[in-house]
Amino acid sequence: MVKTESPARIGRPRDPGKDEAVLLAARTLLAEVGYQQTTISAIARTAGVNTPAIYRRWSSREALIEEAVHGPGGHPLPRSTGDLRVDLTTWVHIFLVRAARPAARAGVPGLLADSRTAEARQRLLAIGAPVRAAFQDLLDDAVRRGEIPAGADAMFLFDLLAGTTTMQGLTRGLEGQDRFVDALARSLYVLAAHPADAVGTEAVGQ
Amino acid sequence: MVKTESPARIGRPRDPGKDEAVLLAARTLLAEVGYQQTTISAIARTAGVNTPAIYRRWSSREALIEEAVHGPGGHPLPRSTGDLRVDLTTWVHIFLVRAARPAARAGVPGLLADSRTAEARQRLLAIGAPVRAAFQDLLDDAVRRGEIPAGADAMFLFDLLAGTTTMQGLTRGLEGQDRFVDALARSLYVLAAHPADAVGTEAVGQ
């Protein structure tokens, strides 16, 4: 995550430590004062940087809050264990914990309300791209190992994972999390194991 | 939906026609001026009723907006056709269309931000209860017909349906809807046909 930069250039044009401080300040403010009051100037004050420094790094308040809410934020994705059921359980758990964080519960509804422009969609896709790619790899590896057949729609399964955990985290937080994580991880596994091509050729439910 | 009430008592304590006018006014305002500006007084003005009349019927602005956004609003649920795949496709389509309505895209994020209290959760559960019960019936009927085995977790599948369509409607609207509806309806069917009890006893993915 941390860019290599010579100490002499710190602060201009980019300082990873300062970036992290700004993102942390945004998360703290979201949790403490809510979306509306998490303004650029409040974030700058909390992080101890000036406003122009923030605008050099982020094009808008929404872009900054998106990264604060949807960026990794201390919950990195794990390496594959070689067992897709185990890996899916870990992914669902991480997604739920992130969606249930106070910063996400305050920030995601605000972003959903404010970020329906094409530009905002592009930003969100860019933030999500590495995670989507990692999810695709997870399923591809399971196909290579012979754990699931080829043909699963990984990007649809990713939307199912992201959408369901986001709504669960926003509305229920971590309440009933064990049952939820098991049910969703199992569902993703069953769907990965039964790609669309196979339906109709198998006697489901008989 | 319409309560039987003698014409002489219209307006006190309840007038279904007036209720509908208030809900329609709330939806119109959400779509036109957004969540923040959809106030009780703006709704009253648009609907041509007075504010106390609204408070006699709804306990708060949030309760009213919730009913405007999550109530049926012209998209009633259909009767079962006797074919679960067909019925699930219809349900997913209706849920997506409702989540993509301008009133929902403006109102749902605001409600998610404002309605995280236990009281708000209770209200939402009460609004959703008949729809959840109808979904449970849909699956129970399919079990009775022998279309799927018993044991599906209907309430978890309902959360999957509601969460995924809500996020899809909010972020993408009706863009790519045919592919999305097919993929989600198929997923719900596969999951209904492979309840948890059966996993492990069948050779998934072999």
TrEMBL record, chains A, B:
Residues 16-76 form the HTH tetR-type domain. Gene3D superfamilies: Homeodomain-like (1.10.10.60), Tetracycline Repressor, domain 2 (1.10.357.10). The lineage of its organism: Bacteria, Bacillati, Actinomycetota, Actinomycetes, Mycobacteriales. One of its GO terms (molecular function) is DNA-binding transcription factor activity. Pfam families: TetR_C_11, TetR_N. Coiled coil: none annotated. It comes from Rhodococcus erythropolis (strain PR4 / NBRC 100887). Residues 39-58 bind DNA. Keywords: DNA-binding, Transcription, Transcription regulation. The keyword Transcription applies. The keyword Magnesium does not apply. This is Putative TetR family transcriptional regulator.
